[in-house]
Design brief:
CATH architecture: 2-Layer Sandwich
Number of strands: 9
CATH superfamily: GHMP Kinase, N-terminal domain
CATH class: Alpha Beta
Distance between the termini: 21 Å
Strand content: 25-35%
Order of helices and strands: EEEEHHEHEEHEEHH
Largest sheet: 5 strands, mixed
Strand order of the largest sheet: 1-2-3-5-4
Structural class: alpha+beta
Helix content: 25-40%
Radius of gyration: 18 Å
Number of domains: 1
CATH topology: Ribosomal Protein S5, domain 2
């Protein structure tokens, strides 16, 4: 796995924030609390967690055009992936009638932007939820556990964890995997680019991703502890 760095409290105004780095990939994640759910959930007693993903114009080698009116299919797909991943570890009935919007903005892209966004987005979400708990607006934590994500694939005849852009673009096959601290798989996205893989190879990739996700969750724990979050109160043990 590439070196991972997490810095919390990087935004003055957001209820939760961090910058996460997977190697040269850098993503700003902010969580914003809204004291009302979406219209279709009003009166249900449930809340909502959603996400929005975007890439800054010079986050890549060539300048990207800003998405001003209509977002691309890729942007929508990744936004929904992040939202599903965060909801997988959130009890929406315990969140109450409020929303948390997690924005993930790619500052610099070198492969793994969606996986970094999920891992960092979770940290921003926890910090925001902690704020609600500290203000005694929530008696029971709605957080069910940790979630993280990483990629792996076959590159030049060997299995690689956390592919950078070049490795991803040249890989025979690659997989993005999202996993909870109980080693439950939230989502798998896999593609054969140059060569098909067999079931044994897919299992090997999943095993490698599982190892990476467990390491990432230890780093999440370290970052949250450094941010003075009472993880024993908010989250179950990683054991």
């Amino acid at each position: 796995m590439r070196p991972v760095k997490i810095e919390t409290g990087v935004n003055l105004y957001a209820e939760g924030s961090c910058i996460i780095e997977y190697g040269s990939t850098r993503v700003l994640c902010t969580a914003s609390l809204e004291e009302q759910p979406p219209r279709w959930l009003q009166g249900s007693g449930k809340g909502w967690v959603t996400a929005e993903y975007g890439m800054l114009p010079r986050s890549t080698h060539d300048r990207l055009r800003r998405e001003k009116s209509l977002t691309s299919g890729r942007t929508q797909e990744i936004s929904r992936l992040i939202g599903r991943s965060l909801r997988a570890v959130t009890d929406l009935s315990l969140l109450g009638e409020r929303s948390v919007v997690v924005d993930c903005d790619v500052l610099q892209a070198d492969g793994g932007t969606r996986t970094a966004a999920i891992t960092g987005g979770f940290i921003a979400l926890v910090i925001a939820i902690n704020k609600v708990v500290q203000e005694e607006n929530l008696q029971t934590t709605p957080l069910l556990g940790y979630v993280s994500a990483i990629s792996a694939g076959w590159f030049e005849g060997q299995m690689i964890l956390d592919l950078n852009y070049y490795e991803d673009s040249q890989a025979d096959a690659d997989v993005n995997l999202v996993m909870t601290h109980r080693k439950e798989i939230v989502e798998v996205q896999g593609t054969s680019e140059r060569k098909c893989i067999n079931r044994t190879q897919l299992n090997e990739i999943a095993d490698l991703c599982e190892k990476g996700c467990m390491e990432l969750q230890q780093l999440q724990l370290k970052a949250l502890t450094h941010a003075k979050i009472d993880v024993q109160k908010l989250l179950p043990s990683l054991s």
